[in-house]
Amino acid sequence: MITLFGKNLKSHLKVSVALTEIFGINRSTSERLTNLLGFGCNYKISQLTKNQLNKLMKLIEQEYIIENDLRLDIRNDLKRLISINSYKGFRHLNNLPVNGQRTRTNALTQKRLGLLRNRKL
Q1: pLDDT tens digits, one per residue of 64-103
Q2: Are 9 and 52 in contact, with CB atoms under 8 Å apart?
Q3: Cα dihedral: 32, 36, 41, 42 (round 10)
Q4: Helices (H), 19-107
Q5: Could you tell me the domains of the chain?
Q6: pTM for the whole thing?
């Protein structure tokens, strides 16, 4: 197992699949990274040398916000929406669907959970 950014990546997986374990890197981003660094599509994590791993880590650190920094940014964005009393902030605060989804017939579980969570507050 190889550790990148605090995540243990399974050595038998392809590089593009294993990188998706890192929060903030999806499949298309991981494929873009592997193409940029010249790894083959069938390259596995166990086949990477230390030099290649260092290049990969440097590229990810320079180009992307990942793991705890990304989680902190998301949390701060939600706090900002709630503090300015925006509609989206209100929906987040009450644990309701935010992006205009239908709530009459769908999202019943979400509405129920929102009611339960608000009663506890």
Answers
A1: 999 999 999 999 999 999 999 999 999 888 878 888 888 7
A2: no
A3: -120
A4: 27-37, 50-63, 67-83, 87-93
A5: 2-67 (1.10.8.50), 68-120 (4.10.910.10)
A6: 0.77
